[in-house]
Amino acid sequence: MRICIYCKREKSTSEFNLEHVIPRSFGCPNSLQINCVCEECNSFFGRTIDRVLAYDSRESVLRLELLKSGRRNKSRFLVKQSRVSQRIPLERKFGDFAGLYVEPIAGPKLSIHLLPQIKLIGSMGEIELIKIADISRFNYLYFRSKVKTFKEAGSVTVYAGSEVEMRIAQRKLEKYGIMKNFKDFTLIMNNNLLEDGKLIVYIEGQVSTEIYRAYGKIALNYAALKYGPGFVLQSQFDNIREFVLTDNIPNQSVSFSDKGKYPEDLVNKHAISIVTEGTSIYAYASLFAQTGFIYKILLSSWSVIPSVSASSIVVDPIKKEIQQQSGNILFINR
After folding, report:
1. What's the chain's Rg over C-alpha atoms?
2. What is the pLDDT of residue 105?
3. Residues 266, 83, 72, 27: is their CA dihedral positive or negative?
4. CA 242 to chain centre
5. pLDDT computed for residue 81 by the predictor
6. 232, 224 in Cβ contact below 8 A?
7. Of 134, 216, 307, 334, which is the most exposed, with the fewest CB atoms less than 10 Å away?
């Protein structure tokens, strides 16, 4: 019999399977696994918070860029563009395509695809974008009014990445009465936006509760690996445990900062540090350590200072290499 570190239910050992400390989709090697998460919790995480982290986050864009090569099923690396979006820079050299939404496409070479969208330009040069996918029966009146306003004072342009997508966009816009006479609008199809096979895009998005929970799980997994399942099963870890399992409680455990500091050799690698601060145990974590993005996770609080030695781990997701280090290697600038 064994106790799951998440649901804390005692189950037969046959009801447990190996859990990667960092989701396997992020290049976590099989040597970095724990065997104290039951199949039920493991499956739940896989179809919820792990999926959001892998397909609909800032980290998912980096995953697509860095880990796409050598994969048979390239569709596994498509980014959903719900919580995260990528846009062409607002630079003159991109002409009418400046500022538009694009999506990455995995293949032998990373390429981009222009999303079906409407570009609105006001009389003062202000720009607004509407993704065709965002228009529905619940909000079409709002978009109809906005398009009408811009059409009267500025310009309205429809973009799509293919003839098929353009026809689908036209039917949708006609259905909701947003654009009835397409002769009044300029329709521009996709062209070659890449220069020398490269395009620097802006990534914009939101850090949702699912992302916070996913990082909380990574931190608790590493604590279980480093200090043992029995240690993290203590009641002091119940708050982070409950937060990872459900979004029914407020997030008081995980915070995000873009002012992180770490050694330069960590770039494009994963790093986790566990440290003691006062009477609390914290974890710092960053996937594909870039641009100062770090998550700070409150793992547990104690009445006395816990006797836990600081520990860090660095994972190279490309080479599948692991490096254990003592002390903290991730910091947040004040």
Report:
1. 23
2. 66
3. positive
4. 21
5. 57
6. yes
7. 334
Question: How is residue 115 annotated by DSSP?
Answer: P
Give phi and psi for 62, each to the nearest 5. Answer: -65, -35
pLDDT for the residue numbered 320: 92
Contacts of 333 (CB under 8 A, 6+ apart): 259, 260, 261, 292
Q: Give the sign of the dihedral formed by CA 91, CA 94, CA 96, CA 100.
A: negative
CA distance 157 to 187: 6
Closest CA to 122 of 148, 144, 98, 104: 148
Query: Strand pairing of 186-189 and 155-160?
Result: parallel
For 161-310, list the strands marked E by DSSP: 186-189, 202-205, 254-257, 260-261, 270-277, 280-286, 294-301
Angle between helices 209-227 and 238-245 (to 10 degrees): 130
The helices-and-strands tally (H runs, E runs) of the chain is 8, 20
DSSP, residue by residue, 280-297: EEEEEEESS--TT-EEEE
Residue (of 301, 312, 235, 229) closest to 269 by Cα position: 312
Check: CB of residue 250 under 8 Å from CB of residue 258: no
Q: What is the pLDDT of residue 70?
A: 44
Interior CA angle at 32 toward 30 and 35, to 5°?
Answer: 90
Distance CA 81, CA 97 (A): 18
Distance from C-alpha of 91 to C-alpha of 111, rounded to nearest angstrom? 20
Q: Tokens for 297, please give them.
A: 């996770």
Please, are residues 127 and 113 in contact by the beta-carbon 8 Å criterion?
Answer: no
Tokens 């799951």 sit on residue: 4
Go through the chain and tell me how many residues it has. Answer: 334
pLDDT at 179: 84
Mean pLDDT by 10 residues, the chain (334 residues): 96 95 95 96 95 88 73 51 76 84 66 85 89 92 92 88 87 90 64 56 77 96 96 96 86 85 86 94 92 90 90 94 87 72
Give the residues across from 225 on adjacent strands: none
Q: What's the CA gap between 191 and 114, in Å, rounded?
A: 9
